[in-house]
């Protein structure tokens, strides 16, 4: 009787998901995504505008990344032990909203202690950056690890990942639309006005993200596949199981490289377009918006593909090649030809979507049917992502010179390297790792199954 019930659960799990479960799941990361877009695009710029040196601004971001990386491991372990994906998601979202408003809202620690010393400001911003990333990690790991426990259907799993990535692009586009409106309504005649601009961007972003959370909590059920009677799925998988798999290391490297490519370039692009290419203030929102608009369009198209291992590798390779070309062009682009940044932004957007959707798909391929170890996989890979991005940005900013409000810089600066050449190098490394991948479609029939209803109508 128990076996029959377990077979029924597994059969139901292999059925393709419909449009509504995929869409409601996809919006569940919107608060994380819109605050992350603001964090990586504007945090370093904001901190330097309020007077922190580039190295100290990087310390604030690094403290957040370290806290984020450690929390991903803890959250992954706790979710694998106790489940309750949505409870972790809610708790993390609350921390994100409170701490994010505290970072961009001013130095709360300075207010409490009644001092505005440089050291206290650095410590205060670093503390709330850590709290923000702890909440962000709890939300991210719980949301990502839900995929393998919502369905066993390979195409639906990639559709969930692709839909999540598509709404990541919506969140980013929303952030840059908010930024454009704020830049238009709040004139930046002084550095204090610039600080006010970023605060309004942060507050509106939190409100928008919370609205989408309501849709996620209303439309997404707590996953139940882990409760199946199959002993393989009810016994918790140890860490050592994954460390014995060569594919784990390959996927970990590729996911880390994909995040380095997107996050490092995103963190420095506002500096690059305004100070290296000497474009106007609106370019801080327009260029990133073009990137994420193209990413969104490509991600939506990718949702309609019937996925298998060969297509994952092929599209990842194409995305990496596009980044090599675009990154090299960005690195050598002179300010007199800054209008070429618009088509380059389109190429970067398409490349970002290809590398992110495929590497997240590789995570699902790695987990397969080993559901009770999925949170550790997503947590440990996110740990590598956070630590590597934090260290990379800290090293880059350590070579940056302090710049006063409105000052421009010379050629071949840190932002030019970080926006173009370094992501290209990461993309070359990703191509090498991709060439070593040996994937197998564990359930060809499930992989070939179409979605119950297409996402494009």
Can you put this structure into words, describing what you see?
By secondary structure, this protein is mainly alpha-helical. It folds into two domains: 18-224, Growth Hormone, Chain: A (Up-down Bundle), CATH 1.20.1250.20; 240-397 and 408-456, Growth Hormone, Chain: A, CATH 1.20.1250.20. It is 77% helix and 0% strand. It is built from 19 helices and no strands. The protein has helices at 2-13, 19-26, 30-49, 54-82, 85-105, 108-113, 118-145, 147-150, 154-185, 191-219, 231-234, 239-243, 246-276, 283-302, 309-332, 341-367, 374-398, 414-435, 444-448. α3 (30-49) packs antiparallel against α4 and α9 runs antiparallel to α14 (283-302). The protein is globular. The model is unreliable at 227-234 and 444-457 (pLDDT under 50).
Radius of gyration of CA atoms, rounded to a whole number: 22 Å
Domain unit count: 2
The helix/strand class is mainly alpha
**N- and C-termini, Cα separation:** 42 Å
Largest sheet: none
Tell me roughly what share of residues is in helical segments: over 70%
Low-confidence stretches: 227-234, 444-457
Q: Name the beta content range.
A: under 5%
Mean pLDDT comes to 80
**CATH-defined architecture of the largest domain:** Up-down Bundle
Record field, number of beta strands: 0
CATH C-level class of the largest domain:
Mainly Alpha
- What's the overall geometry? globular
| Annotated CATH homologous superfamily of the largest domain | MFS general substrate transporter like domains
């Amino acid at each position: 009787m128990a076996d029959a019930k377990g077979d029924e659960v597994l059969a139901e799990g292999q059925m393709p998901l419909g449009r509504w479960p995929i869409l409601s799941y996809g919006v569940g990361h919107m608060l994380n995504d819109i605050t992350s877009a603001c964090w990586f695009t504007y945090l370093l710029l904001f901190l330097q505008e309020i007077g922190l040196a580039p190295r100290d601004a990087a310390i604030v971001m690094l403290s957040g990344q370290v806290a984020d990386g450690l929390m991903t491991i803890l959250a992954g372990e706790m979710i694998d032990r106790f489940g309750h994906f949505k409870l972790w998601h809610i708790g993390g979202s609350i921390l994100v909203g409170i701490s994010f408003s505290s970072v961009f809202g001013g130095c709360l620690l300075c207010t409490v202690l009644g001092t505005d010393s440089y050291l206290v400001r650095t410590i205060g911003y670093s503390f709330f950056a850590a709290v923000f990333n702890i909440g962000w990690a709890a939300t991210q790991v719980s949301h990502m690890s839900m995929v393998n426990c919502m369905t066993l259907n390979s195409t639906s799993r990639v559709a969930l990942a692709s839909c999540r990535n598509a709404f990541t692009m919506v969140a980013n586009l929303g952030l840059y639309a908010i930024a454009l409106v704020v830049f238009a309504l709040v004139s930046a005649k002084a550095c204090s006005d610039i600080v006010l601009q970023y605060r309004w961007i942060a507050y509106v972003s939190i409100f928008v993200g919370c609205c989408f959370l309501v849709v996620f909590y209303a439309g997404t059920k707590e996953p139940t596949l882990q409760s199946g009677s199959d002993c393989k799925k009810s016994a918790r998988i140890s860490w050592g199981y994954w460390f014995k798999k060569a594919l784990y290391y390959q996927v970990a490297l590729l996911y880390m490289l994909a995040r380095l490519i997107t996050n490092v370039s995103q963190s420095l692009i506002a500096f690059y377009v305004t100070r290296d290419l000497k474009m106007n203030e609106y370019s801080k929102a327009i260029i990133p918006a073009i990137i994420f608009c193209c990413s969104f369009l490509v991600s939506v198209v990718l949702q309609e593909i019937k996925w298998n291992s060969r297509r994952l590798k092929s599209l990842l390779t194409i995305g990496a090649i596009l980044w090599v070309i675009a990154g090299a062009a960005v690195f050598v682009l002179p300010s007199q030809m800054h209008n070429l940044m618009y088509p380059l932004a389109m190429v970067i957007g398409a490349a970002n979507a290809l590398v992110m959707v495929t590497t997240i798909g590789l995570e699902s391929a790695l987990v397969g049917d080993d559901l009770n170890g999925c949170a550790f996989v997503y947590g440990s890979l996110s740990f590598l992502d956070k630590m590597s991005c934090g260290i990379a940005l800290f090293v880059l900013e350590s070579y940056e010179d302090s710049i006063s409000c409105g000052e421009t810089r010379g050629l071949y600066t840190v932002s030019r390297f970080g926006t173009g050449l370094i992501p290209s190098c990461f993309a070359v490394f990703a191509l090498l790792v991709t060439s070593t991948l040996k994937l197998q479609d564990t359930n060809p029939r499930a992989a070939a199954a179409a979605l119950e209803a297409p996402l494009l109508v």
